[in-house]
Design brief:
Largest sheet: 6 strands, parallel
CATH topology of the largest domain: Rossmann fold
Number of domains: 2
Structural class: alpha/beta
Number of strands: 14
Strand content: 5-15%
Number of helices: 17
CATH superfamily of the largest domain: NAD(P)-binding Rossmann-like Domain
Distance between the termini: 53 Å
Radius of gyration: 23 Å
Helix content: 40-55%
Length: 433
């Protein structure tokens, strides 16, 4: 099938490359000419394991192409995906749908035959209705149907998630749209991926509900971790004990410095605002968002306490800047709040991240970026492990001890065992233990 992907960011690029790998003919569109030029040279705008090879293979095979010409891409497409950004709107926290609306109107004017317009962006309930209305106003004679097909891609594992999904949610109000989307995803039938067909509004809400629930699990175990520290329990054992119950499951029960990234912070806030607008407040989600914000700031105080109560004039080594491993995404990363809190307390920061330092430079100032973990640690008064990259999981602890000015390690991801740290003469501070 012929597919146009409007937006060549994280969701659009991964989705477009994977659809092409299934054998579909995909054109990815973006208004950023520089980004398109880089993509044509196989330079990815994001770090995602395996994405460059996947893109290169499908470009070479003639199934994947890139352009700034939306009209040409849409004119011959049977399915047009809108995969543009929906950031939190400044001032009120609602999802900013201006990019979605603008794309819908431009697509409407470019249609040359029947096409299914699919919102892949994460959008509030009722956005599909708005897209349909705006398109009909822009081109009253156009033949199209609007569907919702939310994405459930984890950064760092997006290709595997697309090709071996837990589920595919299709929200439609038109039998023709359902048939097109089922044909697009037909290659996944071999993987027995469950396809759930529902209404457009239900599909839109399902995405927000899923992210809010996962954010709630993270925040729940973080609060249990704090209680564990007070009563002398081990949060990792608690998490395993409850996670073995298949009604709960073990995923998203790793205590840490709080959630960040491109989805959970903005999606929980957008759900809260939508619920308030419909006079049906989601009090649990409101609390989750508030507790998570407070937690990220509190991690700075935890580091200060571990460093003896003051970090003024001290150098703190921070390992890991991105909100999770295997991505260069710095959006709402806990590292931002932690570093800013330490700087406000008078500390100098030396940091290293395997992939995120260029993005970090855009949001953090006065940080000394080191070439590797040991260069960051050398001469520092404390080491803080914020993001659990594989490169940080098996550090030479004897070398860490020799390089640190003071033997203080704050392990915000519980990567290391306290007894192992003690054996090497390091003062270890973990989470919930």
């Amino acid at each position: 099938m012929r597919v146009a992907m409007i937006g060549s960011g994280y969701v659009g690029l991964v989705s477009g490359a994977c659809f092409a790998d299934f054998g579909h003919e995909v054109v990815c569109v973006d208004k950023d000419a520089g980004k398109i030029e880089r993509l044509l040279a196989n330079v990815m705008p994001i770090y995602e394991p395996g994405l460059d090879d996947l893109v290169a293979a499908n470009v070479k095979a003639g199934r994947l192409s890139f352009t700034t010409d939306l009209a040409a891409a849409v004119a011959g497409a049977e399915a047009v995906f809108i995969a543009v950004g929906t950031p939190s709107r400044r001032g009120d926290g609602h999802a900013d749908l201006s990019y979605v609306h603008a794309a819908a109107q431009e697509v409407a004017r470019a249609l040359a035959g029947f096409a299914v317009i699919v919102t892949k962006s994460t959008v509030p309930v009722g956005t599909g209705d708005d897209v349909e209305r705006l398109m009909r106003e822009a081109n009253p004679g156009a033949d199209f149907a609007v569907a919702s097909n939310p994405e459930f891609l984890r950064e760092g594992a997006a290709i595997a998630d697309f090709k071996r999904p837990d589920r595919i949610i299709i929200g439609v109000e038109d039998a023709r749209a359902q048939a097109v989307l089922e044909e697009l995803y037909r290659p996944l039938y071999l993987n027995r991926a469950p396809i759930m067909v529902t209404s457009r509004r239900t599909a839109e809400l399902t995405k927000y509900a899923a992210n809010a629930f996962l954010a709630t699990k993270i925040t729940f175990i973080n609060e249990i971790a704090d209680l564990c520290e007070k009563v002398g329990a081990n949060v990792q054992d608690v998490a395993r004990g409850i996670g073995l119950d298949n009604r709960i499951g073990g995923k998203f029960l790793n205590a840490g410095p709080g959630y960040g990234g491109s989805c959970f912070p903005k999606d929980t806030l957008a759900l809260i605002k939508t619920a308030q607008d419909h006079d049906s407040p989601v009090r649990i989600v409101e609390t989750v968002a508030n507790v998570n914000d407070i937690r990220k700031r509190a991690m700075g105080r935890r580091v200060i306490a571990a460093a003896g109560g003051s970090v003024r004039g001290k150098t703190i080594a921070v390992l890991g800047l991105t909100f999770k491993p295997n991505t260069d995404d710095m959006r709402d990363s806990p590292a931002i709040a932690i570093i800013q809190a330490l700087q406000d307390a008078g500390a100098s920061i030396r940091a290293h991240d395997p992939e995120g330092m260029e993005q970090a430079k855009l949001v953090l100032t006065d940080v000394d970026y080191a070439k590797d973990a040991y260069a960051a640690i050398e001469g520092a008064d404390a080491m803080v492990l914020v993001t659990e990259w594989d490169a940080f999981r098996a550090l030479d602890l004897g070398r860490v001890k020799r390089l640190l000015k003071a033997p203080v390690v704050v392990d915000l991801r519980n990567v290391y065992r306290p007894e192992e740290m003690a054996r090497h003469g390091l003062q270890h501070s973990g989470i919930g233990r």
